[in-house]
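Lab notes, practical 5.
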Amino acid sequence: MNALYNIAIKIAENTLPLAGRFSHKLKLFTEGRKTVFSKLKREIDPTAEYLWFHAASLGEFEQALPIIEEVKKEFPKYKILVSFFSPSGYENKKHHPLADLITYMPLDTQTNAKRFLDLVNPEMAFFIKYEIWPNFLVELKKRSIPALLISGAFRESQIYFKPYGGFMRNALHTFDHFFVQNEESKLLLENRGFNNITISGDTRFDRVSRQIQYNNKLDFAEEFIDKKTCLVAGSTWQEDEEILLPFINNTSEAVKTIIAPHEIKEEKIKVLEQKIKKKSIRYSKRENQDLASSDVLILDTIGLLGKVYSYSDIAYVGGAAGTTGLHNILEPATFGIPIIIGKNYEKFPEAIRLRQLAGLFSVEDSTEFTEVAEKLISNKDFRIKTGMISEHFINSNTGATQSIMTYLKTDNRLSI
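Output from the prediction step:
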C-alpha cells in the first residue's frame, strides 16, 4: 500500500500540470507549487525557530488561527510558517499578518518532504483536522520533530479504520498527540491502540466567539436592510441558490436578502442576477445607489461575511445542498440566529449536534426552505428562541485553544 500511495502521488505530480490547462483552480494548484522551494530558500530566516501550521484550505486555517494568536503571545520567539494545500486557502490568505511566511505545501512525496523540512526545520508541526500526509509525517518522526493533530475528526467510514487502511493508519502513529473534537473520535483511536488523545473540541468555536467582540458595523448593510427582517445566505453554490430563489422571488413578507456566493465569478453572478425577479444590486455597484430600495444584495466580495451575519435575523449556510461540503455554520451561530442548511451534513459534527439541539434546520428542497423560513419570519418568539440555542451552543463549546496551550506549556514543550 505504501508503494501504491507513492506511485499515485507521483502520477498526480506529473499529470496535474496537464489538467491545469483546463481548470483555473488546478492551474493555481500546480503553478503555485513550482516556486515553493525557491521561495523558502529566499525567505526563510536561518537564524529563526519556526512553528509550522498546515491547513487544507480556509476552514482549516480558521481552526488554526486561535492557536497561532495565542502562540504568538505566549511564545513570541518563534516565527510562524503556514502552508496550504488548496489554492482557495493560499490565494485568500497569502498575506495574512499573523504568519511570518505563507506557502503552498508540496505534494506528499518523500523527496518533497525531505527538501521542505531541510529548509524549514520546524520546532513543531501542527496539522489541522483531516490533514494527514504520510511522507511528511514519517519524515518529521525521523527528525524527532513533534507533530500534533488539531481539531481532529474521525469517523468509522474513514480509511484509517478499514482492513485495507493499514498504511494510512500507520501514519497516525507518527503524531505525538491528537486533539480531537468529540468522544467518537477518541473512541475510534483508542480502539486501535492509541492513548495520546485529548478531547479538546473544535478551535473554530474559540475563533467565532471572538467575532462578537469586534466592531461589526457596516454602513451599507444598515442602509440596505432598512430595519426590515434580514436573511443572509452565506457561501452559496448553485444548488443552494435553487433552494433559495423560489422563496426570494415569491415571498410576500417584507424581507431583505443578502447573498454571498462562494465563487465570485462574473459569469456566475450574472446568472444569479438573471434568476432574481426582485430588485437586486451588487455590493461592487452600490456607490451612489439607493440601497434601501433593493430587495436583494449580492455580496460580490470577500472578507465581509462574518460581519454581515451580525445583521441577519436568519442565516442560510451553503454547501450542504450539493456535495461540495457544508461551510461554516459557527460564524452565524455566534450572533444568536437560527440557521438553515441543505441535506448533506453527515460529515459535520457541529451541524449534527446543533440540529439535535433545535438551533438548526436541514431542508431538502425549496418547498421545505420556504416553510421553515416563513415560520421563522412570522413567529418572532420562535426565531429568537431558536437563535438563543445557537448562541448557547457556541458559548458552551469554547476552550479548545486553552487545552492545546496547556499542553504546549507543560514540560517546556515550547520554550519562552
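Observations recorded by the TA: The longest strand covers residues 229-236. The mean pLDDT is 94.
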